[in-house]
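Quick check before the chapter quiz. The format below is the same one you will see on the exam, so make sure you can read both the input and the output lines.
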Amino acid sequence: MRLNDVHYLMPLLILVAGAIVTMLAVAVKRNHQVVFGLTLLAHLAALFTLLPLRGFSYQIPPFLIVDGWGVFTMGLILMTSLFVTLVSYAYFEQREERKEEYYILLLLATLGTCVLVISQHFMALFLGLEVLSVSLYALISYLRLREMSDEAGIKYLILAAMSSAFMLFGMALMYAVTGTMSFTEIAVYLRSVQDIPLLFLTGFGLIVVGVGFKLGVVPFHMWAPDVYEGAPAPVTAYIATASKGGMVGLLIRFISETNGYQYPSLVLIFTCIAVASMVAGNLLALRQKNIKRLLAYSSIAHLGYLLIAFLAGNQLGVEAVGFYLVAYFITTLGSFGVVALLSDNVRDADQLEDYRGLFWRRPATAAIFTAMLLSLAGIPLTAGFVGKFYLLASGVSTQQWLLVAMLVLNSVIGLYYYIKVIAVMFAQPEKKPELRKVLHPAISFASGATMAVLALLLVWIGIYPTTLVQIIRGLLVTFTALK
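Here is the expected output.
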């Protein structure tokens, strides 16, 4: 390792230092506010050190590369983790469980996700994946007194183990053929041969299966809704955003650098996954009465939408993926943030009936949740609408007419269950006690302010998307896989 590498690894080193300092602070004395403050400071410091890395493409051979795509995805993941931290404080403050270890695990999960998106070697990929997965096992089952939380943790453990097994087997087969685990060297090997060995394609397919389990797309979605339902609301938000965003970032780098788009069979597989995810995700969400499960199936559908831009395999496609990730992260964080805001110390506010008449009890919260749902549905003046337009543009540019048609059709289907939730919030209220007990005004204000910021970002990007588009284009100039 060279001394200059430290500058480019500083965001990762700060996350490591933050986890260690937080752990030592817990060992000295347990204090929720102190640990929360240290976690916020670590996130802000990591984001600050990330800013000078824009405009560079720096390799840390053979494992990592810090380029435009890596900086963008790391920044997005750090911002997402920061918002999850802000939402988590009020959520855990009212609980009797020991809260401090939660923030250590969150920092480690963020560290693993950041390593994923800048990996250019199978060893770095697997290291980041395992740091993320092991942290999520504990985060999902963190509320030990809830049986559903324990069940969700065990189910995620099984899914993650299957994902790792498929990916490791696939890596082994590809290494057996190419003799290397570096993405760039694999690309060099592929350019040097005329006929790709079947063993190599088998390994490629196994890696796709492993990634499919992590993304929760059809047909690898099995227990994904159960995990969403059982995990604490802020953890569910993290799984649906940062965890999946990290895998999307890795997938784009891996497929782009190895030129996977040249294999029609692989494109066909991803096309089938995209169509199945869009259709199954939306149809299964129609009958859900649990908000977490509804958003879980919605997440499956949105990843199907995202695969349209991914399959474009060009500059516009990567831009569309980046923009849609931002829009999807904001809306999903806001949706699960409202769930966390309304939850009490007994259970999460995850039943549809918990939201009946919410507008008449908490008009501001209902308005924010309405904006998030409308963005997920792709209604104009929201970030979700511009994101879907970008996806359509990338699909049309590469003449993916089937996927474009499925996107339009499934967006109409999805509109029904989002409107159903909104209608329940605006229905006449029933005389029920408030679900959540009253917290300290400062804590309630902080949570409400976080939700308000997300809502403003949602509308601002929907009305004026040019700034975000320019940022993404500027960073992609140094994305080596596109050159």
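If your answer matched, good. The two ends are 26 Å apart (CA to CA).
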